[in-house]
Each structure stands twice: as C-alpha cells, then as structure tokens.
Design brief:
single chain, about 525 residues, 10-stranded antiparallel β-sheet, two-stranded antiparallel sheet, binds protoporphyrin IX containing FE, iron
Length: about 525
Amino acid sequence: RGFGTNADGAGDANDKRMAENETEETLTNRQGQPVKDNQNIRTVGNRGPSTLENYDFLEKMSHFDRERIPERVVHGRGAGAHGYFESYGKIGDEPISNYTRAKVFTNTEAKTPVFVRFSTVIHGTHSPETLRDPRGFAVKFYTEDGNWDLVGNNLKIFFIRDAIKFPDMVHAFKPDPLTNVQDMERFFDFIASSPESTHMITFLFSPWGIPANYRQMQGSGVNTYKWVNAEGKAVLVKYHWEPLQGIQNLSQKEADDIQSQNFNHATEDLYKAIEDGNYPEWELHVQIMEDGEHKELDFDPLDDTKLWYRDEFPWYKVGKMTLNKNPQNYFAEVEQAAFGTGVLVDGLDFSDDKMLQGRTFSYSDTQRYRVGANYLQLPINAPKKRVATNQRDGQMAYHVDTPPSHDPHINYEPSLLGSLKEADRTNRKFHEPEISGKLVRESIDRPNNFGQAGETWRRFNDWEREDLILNLSGALADAHESIQQTMIKHCTEADPEYGKRLEEGIKNHIASTKDKHDEGVEKSREMGQSSDPY
Ligand code: HEM
C-alpha cells in the first residue's frame, strides 16, 4: 500500500503525517500542501497584473464562490438543536403497542436521539424572527428501526388542503416578483380566492400568530397519519408537541419592539438556553381516530384545515423530548438537515391525505437539488444504525452504503452469489387497506370551509377577537376593495359578528391611517426644508 492510503485506497483524513516545513498550526490547501503566502497573490511586479497559475488563490476563491447552497424554497430561516426522545409506552391506560408497533414508542428503555429544526416560513435565511408567519417544527428521530421525521408547524392547521395549490400559495406570500417586497394585497388575493384558508387566517392574525420564541412554542404534525400495530390494524393519528416551558406569543407591538433591536432573538434564545443548561422540553401528545372516512363528522378527518376538537378526540401524552446540545457547525447540521414526510418507520404509516402525499414528493425532490444526490450520506441526515443499500455513486458520493464484510462486486439484488437480502417478513402483518374508486380531479366532499373558523372565533376570548380584528383589518386596509369584500363575506359565513367587526375594522383603519398619513406628509415637508449637509 502506498503512503497515506487506507483499505479502500482512499486518503485517510485522520492521517497526521506532515510535510517537512509543516507544524500542527500550518495552514494548508485542500490538497494538503502547506500555504506559504495567504496575503499576496502572485503578480508581475508588486502592483500587478496577476498571472493565471495562482493555484492557491483560485482554489480559495472558487471554493468561497460556492459556499452557499440554494436556500430552502420555504422555511429558509431556522435554528436547530440535538436532544433525545423518551416514550411513556402508554396511551391513556393502555399499552401503546395496542396502537403502534414502532419501537420509538414501544421501547420505553430507549433514549432515541433527535435533531430538531425550528424555522419561519416565508422570508429568507437572515430575515427577522418576529414576523407574523407560521413557525416550522421539524423533528428527526434516529430510531432503532431507522429514521423517522415528523415535519410540523406551530399551528395545528394549514392554509390549503391540496398540494397542487402550494406553489401558488408560496408565490403569493413571498415578495412580489417585480418589487421584491412582500405585499399583503397579493397575500390576501390568494387567501380570498381560497376560502379553505379562512380558519388558518383566523389563527395567524390572532394573538397566536407570532410565537415569542422557539422554546415556548407548540408544534403539530398538522396532517393526519396512521399508526399500525402488530396485527396490521391501523388508526388515524395526529401529533402535537406541548412545551413544558409554557406557551408564549407576542403582540404585534411587542414583536415590532423586538424587531427594531434584534432580528435573531429566537435563535439566540434557543442557543443560550441550551448553553446555560436550561434544556427545553416538549411532551408529545397524540389524537386517535378509528381508520375510516367518518361520515358522521361534518369535516373530513384527512382535511388539514380542520382541528380535531379535544373534547371529542382527547390528547394523550405519549412521550417527552429534551433538547440538550447545540450544533457544532450551523451549516453542516442545520442548513444541510433534510426532513421529509415520507421518512417513516415500521408501525407508522401515511394516511390517504392527498396533501400529505404531495408534501412527501416535494421534500426529497427539493433536497436532491438543494443539498445533493447523496444528501442522506451526510452525518446529520444518515440514520444512527446500519445502512446497507445498492445505491451507488452520484455527485459527492462519500462512501459505499454496505458493510466492509459484504462482497463489493455484488451491488445488485437478487443474486445467487451472495447479495444483500430483503428483511424477513414471516409473521409480519402489514396494513393493506382496500382502495377503489374513480380517478378524478375533484375537491373533497365535506369542505366545510367556514364552520371551524366560526367556532374558533367564538372560542377565542374577547381580547383575542379584538386583537384578531385589529391585525386582520390592518393587513387588509390597503388591499383592493374586491379582496376586502370577499374576506368580509368569508368571515361573515364563519360568524356574522366576525364579518361585521372585520368590516368596521377595515373602515376605521383606513380612516385612522389617512390621519396618520396627513400628519406624516406634514412632517416630511418640514424635513425637506432643512438643508442636506452632504
Ligand atoms: C419545508 C414543501 C406543507 C412544514 C419545506 C420545503 C419544501 C416544502 C419544498 C423545503 C425543504 C428543504 O429544502 O429541505 C411543502 C409542500 C407542502 C408543504 C409542497 C404542501 C403541499 C407543509 C405543511 C407543514 C410544513 C402543512 C406543516 C405541517 C414544513 C417545515 C419545513 C418545510 C417545518 C422546514 C423543514 C426544515 O426545517 O428543514 N416544505 N410543504 N410544510 N415544511 Fe413544507
């Protein structure tokens, strides 16, 4: 074997041998060559021009030129932390294994490692963390059965229920393609044209719309999944995280005050709490419904614009998550982390929710582009258990996913020469639901777009309703009249009082903004009279 090679013939990154003119501190380039001058490029005379063979300069600069990977198309701004999850092993008084055979829940001895990424949704990587925007709450469980990702938000419902609408929704919410400024008129144009979003808007513009930080925020899987037990029997399930630090939200005024001083407050808060040993914890709750369409309900249990009310579908505590370690490298761990709704383990399954299936395609598709074809080989995304596949090569393939004991010639299956084998399925009962029907493009039968929005309005306290009207009417004040009228109509359908108060709110807001505007014009005239010193 040659100098510095290991068994696969590749250089060993841990090889500590040094060149003659090198010490422990010596800067090298990526080829391991000691760098002799990191201050001056090579030039003809010390004023230049420079020459093209400046290898160290060209390598340094071309790597720098590629330091950024595409930002997530949504949820660009985030903060992450490591920790662990412990299952209580029970659902009410029953063993949890009656409902799921997933070891992350049935094994109460396990401390399953987790990585969590919290995020805001609409604006980019360095945008303020004080915006009225849902927050992402994505958890990767490195379980003994392989990885499970629970990709949720802080609010329990969503704007839309069909995945084909997601790109349009995000376009409307993101900055205008011409001005590059977010525009509430575009935002509400989409919302008014998508009545199913009335419920989500009712939460987003209420005091629940700006979480105070990531530690005191709830989380929810939003979409409906399934649990499968050892008999192959399934139930529908929804997941919710409750912070043991308590829940806290910001008023618009508080958010504005923080934003004027600091637009990293949530990232700082999480990082500092963990550094101080003040480890945040969340309890995981589930709601269960028998598998099926539930025609007796006035909504579809797969519709993610709907709550399953607690009084009818109780919340069961099933485990606890503790975050106790900050990332050592933000880029490697937080930026390159890749979560997806398809990442499930045995005992956890998809429901028929068409929105969930759309999401499941989108996550790994975007990650192959954003991070690269071999994103699952990165330590943050790889399971903390054995991986043995026949997938090979592609950009940035870092190693082969099979154990060294395996014959490296056989990267296919089946084979008579000794390939990897499928897992044993004897005595395994699979959940095999019967599905039949016409292939159609249609909306669901029980859209009930306004019922729960009205119920939420009525369940809010007085001050919550007041805050909602203030925020919503303020955001709608500059929108085209047709958008205002449609929003008033939808809120009236939810609850006549809701619509009436929104209509009054918009009128009052427009009147008071006009006064402020006139005052502002006068002030700016005064400023214009003072001479510009530059
Ligand atoms: C991130 C698509 C709905 C929660 C993302 C990303 C995409 C995406 C493409 C970027 C992923 C990456 O670059 O790694 C979609 C589509 C949806 C949808 C197509 C609807 C059809 C939802 C819903 C939730 C949600 C309903 C909440 C339950 C998240 C979270 C992230 C995310 C938390 C950030 C994950 C991270 O921290 O890396 N989504 N999404 N999304 N989405 Fe969705």
